[in-house]
Amino acid sequence: MKVLVTGHLGYIGPHLVDLLLEAGHRVTGIDLDLFAESELYPHAQPQESRIGDLLDLTSEELRGFDAVMHLAGISNDAMGMLDPELTWRINYEGTLHVARCAKEAGVPRFLQASSCSVYGKTDDKPIAEDGQTAPITVYAESKIRVEEALSELADGDFSPVFLRNATAFGSSPRIRLDLVLNNLIAAAYSTGVIRVNTDGSPWRPLIHCRDIALAFLHFLDAPRELVHNGVFNVGSSEETYQVRDVAHLVKRLMPDCELSFGTGVQAIDPRDYKVDFSKLNRTLPAFRPRFTLEAGGRELLDHFQRYGMPRDCLTGDRFIRLKVLKRKLDEGRVPASFRATAARTRPSPLVPPTC
Q: How many CB atoms sit inside 10 A of residue 141's CB?
């Protein structure tokens, strides 16, 4: 198949490109490449790579593609809060622009990277896809609104699928250290202290970044009638942990490090959820995550040592997406679409942008 991957130079993108190439697909990538300095080790490149703004894409450029895999966007809660209107501009308007162009070009399948963070806070029972969403952050809300808007585009010729991914972890050529396991290992590696800013009680479903990429591959190959306009939680119940469990795992991997938890009101994290993955298991029984949390932690530590992760990895701004984005916004080293956010309001899914 001929596949377009947006955000191919991000955290998950290099893994997805690699898996697609292994499977024999022809891959085109588009990315702003804002985080080039986060590269930890070399990675596979698509047959065609374009550095550019999603909002500049046209439907004519998408003709002949069999699928769009949409990873690009403001990628976490903290980045979303840096400039909420920018988050809406990129995550909502940018996504709908690409989807509308894909539909106009006759692209039959659109795989959207969504997030389990849309659940916000739940009771102790794992929540399924038809359960109540309660987004706490701008990032999570943008994901829900995009799902709603893309669902309205679905028809007999255009088939969106929504992958609500669990919290990612693990090594990647374009590494991120703002994810719970990655951050705790980076803190231990660089400071000798496994520092948890909360009390460690919140629950998180976790999944290796390469397993997210693998899920996209399975959804690409899935029969249309099984996945059309469907929402799927992507992860596994076996890899659901309290944050304190993740910290204790890092302690086992790095026993000489001190373990520290936050206390008081400031240590309460409102994001706390368990997720039901049974729909994914029923629909795509061949998909099974390959990495456990412990295997991912060992791999991270090995890659930190093998590829020379610098000791200032947390205090510098190479590997923290929020710091990189803030610096480039301050320096004006971003496309015009990033700067044209003043006086905007949150977009309505009833009035999406056109190509």
A: 23
Report which DSSP code applies to 267. Answer: G
DSSP classification of residue 126: P
pLDDT for res 355? 41
Closest CA to 185 of 91, 253, 278: 253
- CA 139/CA 20 separation, integer angstroms: 28
Which amino acid is present at 208?
H
Nearest to 142 by CA among 169, 176, 111, 117: 117
CA distance 12 to 210: 7
Give the dihedral of Cα atoms 25, 28, 31, 36; nearest 10 deg: 70
Residues contacting residue 37 through CB under 8 Å, at least 6 positions apart: 318, 324
Q: What is the pLDDT of residues 255-282, one digit of tens each?
A: 999 999 988 756 677 889 999 999 999 9
Confidence at 343, pLDDT banded by 50, 70, 90: very low
- Look up residue 2 and give its two tokens: 């001929």
- Model pTM? 0.94
DSSP string covering 158-222? -EEEEEEEPEEES--SB--S-SHHHHHHHHHHHHSEEEESS-S--EEEEEEHHHHHHHHHHHHHS
